[in-house]
Amino acid sequence: MQLSRDELKRAYERMFLIRVFEERVEKEFSAGNIPGFTHVYLGQEACAVGVCFELTDEDYIGSTHRGHGHCIAKGVDVEGMMLEIMGKASGLCGGKGGSMHIADLKKGMLGANAIVGGSPPIAVGAALTQKLNKTGRVAVAFSGDGGANQGTVFEALNMAMVLHVPVIFVFENNEYGEFTTQSYACGGVHIADRVRGFGMPCEVVDGTDFFPVREAMQRALEHTRGDKGPYALEIQCKRFGGHYVGDPQVYRSEKELVEARAYDPIPRFRRAVSEAALLSEAEFNEIESAVQDRVDIAVQSALAALAPDPATDLTKHVYVKYA
Amino acid sequence: MSKKTYLQAINEALRQEMRRDSKVILIGEDLVGGHGATGEVGGAGGPFGQMRGLYKEFGADRMIDTPISESAIIGAAAGAALTGLRPVAELMFVDFVGVCFDQIFNQVAKFRYMFGGNARTPLVIRATIGAGKRAAAQHSQTLHPLFTMVPGLKVAMPSNPYDAKGLLIQAIRDDDPVIYLESKSLFGMECEVPDEPYRIPFGEANILREGKDLTIVALGAMVPRAERAAAELAKDGISVEVLDPRTTSPLDEESILESVKKTGRLVVVDESPPRCSLAADIAGMVADKGFKFLKAPIKQVTCPHTPVPFAPILEDAYLPSPTQIEMAARSILD
């Protein structure tokens, strides 16, 4: 299906927003404004945006430790995110979660998850709710190639088939689980082959290009919404940076790092759309400038915001009600 | 009101709550049993029979049999709870928490806090606990201390059929994740249980026997043993108060302290190895907050620091006996 000009603008805006947001996260981290550990999504923008493009706020996603891109692609507010990442009281999670635990249930975002392989079982449960309530909505379970080696993920794949729930497993194969390559850590080499072993259809998709990701996701949605059971995508992409912000990446050669940048999904999108004369340079520039402004505002707001108050916030929200 | 067993009380609570609220679903291994086999589907009603008859009434949509995949069971129940259902998940034996602890303590327990109060996870995890069934080291543990120390979880340990029903109904209606631990050795125990649904609030201890000389705090299957010890001591004119906290999280500290204030002596009985047990926890709490009430040292009666053994003679020696409880009490009486 051909995308409208508005849809193309939205796709570019989301991808560019992830890019600018994450580059700013790196900068603010280096400046000492972001505590703890953070993992950025640079290079994988087409995956999140392609996967989430057709999802509504009533569809759910479960994310990973590298979750900022998933949040933004799902429509989570970037100012609330930046506030949270800086640990501020007005952040999306009141400063209690941080980068690795951003959640926004109103947007169908069930949380970044700092346990590799933690989300897929939860996404199966969210899909079970959709099945029993007959909502026609789906749940998407994001994992990386690292997560693809977790037992929880195998359990979730099998259970999804047995319970026949509308869940889509998305494996973002960025070639690295932490500091170790997918080719080293994945017995049998291909994630998709494993998934197919559970009887689940699994497509292998080029995640450095928005269009095939979105098209594969359309097939996945047609399948799951059509009550045909779970579906999976192995999306192959490049992680531009390290495992975490500040990772010196001694395990990757200079050559490899440079080559990864050749697969940048953002100029690739812009080039393809420009060549087809669907959006003008002025339109792209306008989007980029608006995104820069949004991220600037988010950062300024987050830097100025108040931290949580230990006297009132430390012990709040452990339970709905405790004795 | 009629006499019901602990098992029947659990069954009745599940049935009544499923009738009351269509969002309540059960999920676990062999809750129904027999899917794809040649005999009767749903005949077993679970390995111990807690679900007997429920499949017939509620069907496969609400009685969800899963593969033997505990992480996926707890994770799916967690995801379903986050998105609007009220699942009751079952771990057949609490020992199996070893293969799904991440989903319980890193996911379920933490959603609300990590997400800044924006999540509710109304999930019950039922599991059977306890030694005495000759089931050996991997099917006999209690493990309530593991759950109790995790902020975000509530932990209920019914010690009789009345509490089994009232605590399970409260657990299902509770908006927080609850670990509900069923003592296997109490399944056949009988007492009067109201036919209508009722709730027992969490964090409210039950005083089973009033006394003035000494307090015995006991949990789960240790409660009837504490009562037997108290009856023995009564023969010598020793007046013992037996207190069952019923939930270990929240813990009714106030009632325990009140009782110790009255009696001045405390024995805590816990079916658990001694280190970091509820006995140690309660003894520590009383030493911290009620030291001035004490006329004698606090005594802890626990299992030894060993796995649960298989041989009947060893397993019997492993569990705190009424005699051990009685001896501990006598050792701190003048």
Automatic annotation (TrEMBL), chain A:
It comes from the Bacteria. GO terms for biological process: pyruvate decarboxylation to acetyl-CoA. It holds the Pfam family E1_dh. Keywords: Oxidoreductase, Thiamine pyrophosphate. Residues 14-310 form the Dehydrogenase E1 component domain. It catalyses: N(6)-[(R)-lipoyl]-L-lysyl-[protein] + pyruvate + H(+) = N(6)-[(R)-S(8)-acetyldihydrolipoyl]-L-lysyl-[protein] + CO2. Gene3D superfamilies: 3.40.50.970. SUPFAM superfamilies: Thiamin diphosphate-binding fold (THDP-binding). GO terms for molecular function: pyruvate dehydrogenase (acetyl-transferring) activity. Its cofactor is thiamine diphosphate. The pyruvate dehydrogenase complex catalyzes the overall conversion of pyruvate to acetyl-CoA and CO(2). It contains multiple copies of three enzymatic components: pyruvate dehydrogenase (E1), dihydrolipoamide acetyltransferase (E2) and lipoamide dehydrogenase (E3). This is ABC transporter substrate-binding protein.
TrEMBL record, chain B:
Transmembrane segments: none annotated. GO terms for molecular function: oxidoreductase activity. Keywords: Oxidoreductase. Residues 4-189 form the Transketolase-like pyrimidine-binding domain. InterPro entries: THDP-binding, Transketo_C/PFOR_II, Transketolase-like_Pyr-bd, Transketolase_C. It comes from Mesorhizobium kowhaii. This is Alpha-ketoacid dehydrogenase subunit beta.
